[in-house]
Structure formats: C-alpha cells, structure tokens
Amino acid sequence: MNRYADRHLDRRDLLKALGITAAGLTCNRLAARHLILVDTSGAEQISRVEWIPYDTGRRSADAAPQQRCAVRISTTGGAQGWADFSISVAPDEETTDLISDTLLEQDPAHPESLWRRLYQQGLPLATLAAVDVALWDLRGRLEGTSVHALLGAQRQKVRTCLNTGFNRGEPADYAQIARQCQASGVAAIKIQPTIAWGAGRDGLTDAGFPDKDMAVYSAVREAVGADYPCIADNQSGYTYDEALRVGRLLDDLSFAWYESPMPETDAWVERYMALAGELRTPICGPEALPDAYEPRIAWIQQQACDVSRISIYHGGFTAALQLTSACAEAGVALTLADAGPDPYPYLQLMGSTAESVTPYLEIASLFRELNVLPGRAQPEPAFDNDGLVAIPHRPGMGLELDWQYIATHRVR
C-alpha cells in the first residue's frame, strides 16, 4: 500500500469523490516521460539567447506601465523556442551572461538537464522559469509537436476553477458570484474572502476575519448547493485556532479543500500537520514558499498538506513537472497557481497529466470573449460553454508571439 494511503482515509475518500485522486497514474506517467529522452545529440546546438523587454501599452491598477519580457532561444540549425513572461523575469547583465555561458553550444534535446544546471547555479527562480519554458518550447518545435504530446497526452481539454479575488464584499456578493460561476459551466469556485493586507498580528503579516469568512462560505454553499466544488483560500491570514475553527465549518460544508489558511514558513509546518490531523477537509499548500519543488515535496512527506500547489514562476515547467510526478506517486492532487496571462505552460502540463492529479485551470474572471494581448499573435485560451479550455496543439507550448510588435515596443 502507498505509504500515504492509510492516513485519514476519509480525506482521501473525499478527494476521490471529487475526482482528484492520483491512484494508478505513476506507471503511465513515468512511461510517458521516457519519450523525451530520445538522443538527438549533434543535430542542433543552442546558438543564442535573447531577452526582449517590451511595453504592452496597458496600465495596471496603480497606473504603472504593464511591461513584459520575451525570451527567445535559437539553434545553429535555425530553430527557435520562446516564452513571454512578466517583466519581473528580466535578468541583470551578470545573470544574462551566466545563462548564455551555460546554454550556448548545448544540445537542446534535454530541457530537464539544462534546467538542473541553471538551478544549481542559483538562478532566480522567475528568470529560470522563463528560460525553462523557452527551452521546452524549443524542444517541442524541434520535434514538430506540442509539449504535452511529447510527454504523453492524457487529455485534450481541462476543467476550470474561478478565483473570486479578495475583498469582494458581503456574503451575498460572494453568493452571487458563485451562482454566476456555476451557471457559466465553470467546474469549481475558489472563494477568497476578506483580508487586511499588512495588518496581521500574532506572527501574521496579513489579517483574516474568520467570522465574516465563515458567513461567506456558508452563503456560497447555500447558493450553489451541496455538490458544487467549493474551495476556501485564506492567504495565510489565520492563527492556528482561527484556522481550526473555520476548518470545522468547512468540514460541515463539504468544501473540496482548504488552501493556505496560516503562514507557510518553516515555523508553521507543525501547525499545518496538526491542522491536517484535526480536519476532514483536505489542506492545500504551500503557495508562498520561495523555492522550487523540493520543499513542496517535503510538505507532502511530512503530511502537512493533502493537495500541493506551485506556480510556473517557482522555477518553470520542469519544476512543476517534477512536483507533478511526486504528487502522482504520493497519491495527492496538485493545484497550479492562477495562470493569468501565462496559461500555456499550465495547459501543456495539464494535458500530459490526468485530471485526478491536476484537476483545474484557475481563471480570474468569467470573461469569455476572444482576447488578443499586445505582443501575442493569437487569442488567449478561453473556456467554452461547458467550462472547458482546450489544450493548444501547436508545436511547443502553443504560444505564437507578434515579434514585430515586440521589436517596435522594446523598452531597452
């Protein structure tokens, strides 16, 4: 028996009932990953790595310019792979040189090996993420197929989950959002209730409001009925006692999981273990850890969470792929952080894994109109009438960029 299977069978049974257990996936997963180990050495070598920051012409809520950064990796044979990320990934001059020194003249056939070399040199994780996604994109384009097909396609569409966003109002306001979400075909809703940023106490950075939050959770459950998957996300705003009190209500309301209720530092891991032991509702975390996949695996091993979580910005596609395999082996699900304008790596990863492991693509709005972002050459993926998003089938990650726009709007 899997060493995790005898812990809280009611918790695992709950996950199974929601269709998000991972039993039986590991063998298929490992077999699929052998597909990327074909030796093509000598066919191509990396010849150039370019970083191109550009202005989208849009403004954020505080009126700051929204800038992004494209990274493009070329080979001696003329092939190219790329990625498009937030401007935050752009490296300084020293890091740019380190990346080029590491990648130039290397065989691009094995992105995971190149990722390991960059990771061991202490590359900033967000910068590493951009390079890694571009390397996988290049690998797919060299093979003429999508990344999820390289890894072994498991599905062609994925279910969606709406993140409400924090501080959306009173319980009735959240209930209305939940009804709209359910009516749209979106498969689940993540409720992010009230939080006071920077106003924490008792070792907390931010402050949650458990009594108000419990009213929100109750109103949402009443609005959507007993069977609609609901998720609680409290962004590390509770003390242990508050998290336990709210968690017991979530047990009664049959929530799908309970995400990041307390701070996620090392000092709080034992409290997460205790909380997991007290509640039937699966615990999800950690979201806020600044490292890649290894500490998240440690949380699983310490039984501090039942659902793991990672962002592509935490080291890239390879880091998320490694955590996905660990979750499959441990029999736990993995939830991927809100994809925002960068859904392509998430979709390719999900397309290569079963729904039981990566159940939902998180979305931030119910907006469904075709939307072409500045710097992109195609509309962004959108959910259909059934709440499903199709996995892109273009080679690589499936993202095509408008290089003329990017060149003419380059900021440095």
Structure write-up:
- The protein is α/β, with parallel strands linked by helices and 412 residues long.
- It folds into 2 domains: 9-30 and 150-390, Alpha-Beta Barrel (TIM Barrel); 46-145 and 403-408, Enolase-like, domain 1 (2-Layer Sandwich), CATH 3.30.390.10.
- It contains 14 helices and 14 strands.
- It has helices at 9-17, 26-33, 93-103, 111-120, 125-143, 147-151, 171-184, 210-224, 240-253, 269-278, 294-301, 317-330, 343-351, 403-408, and strands at residues 46-59, 65-75, 80-86, 157-163, 188-191, 195-196, 207-208, 230-233, 257-259, 283-284, 307-310, 333-336, 360-363, 388-390.
- The strands form 4 sheets. Strands 4, 5, 8, 9, 10, 13 and 14 form a 7-stranded mixed sheet that branches.
- Helix 4 packs antiparallel against helix 5, helix 7 packs parallel to helix 8 (210-224) and helix 8 packs parallel to helix 9 (240-253).
- It is globular and about 60 Å long.
- The termini are far apart.
- The model is unreliable at 1-41 (pLDDT under 50).
| Global outline | globular
What are the low-pLDDT stretches, counting only 5+ consecutive residues below 50? Answer: 1-41
> What is the arithmetic mean of pLDDT?
89
Distance between the termini: 56 Å
Domains counted in the coordinates: how many? 2
- Tell me roughly what share of residues is in helical segments: 25-40%
CATH superfamily of the largest domain: Enolase-like C-terminal domain
Q: According to CATH, what is the class of the largest domain? A: Alpha Beta
Task: Using the CA coordinates, give the radius of gyration.
Answer: 21 Å
Strand segment count:
14
Compute the number of helices. 14
**Fold-level CATH name of the largest domain:** TIM Barrel
The run of helices and strands is HHEEEHHHHEHEEEHEHEHEHEHEHEEH
Q: Which structural class fits the helix and strand makeup? A: alpha/beta
The CATH architecture of the largest domain: Alpha-Beta Barrel
Approximately what portion of the residues adopt beta-strand conformation? Answer: 15-25%
Taking the sheet with the most strands, its summary is: 7 strands, mixed
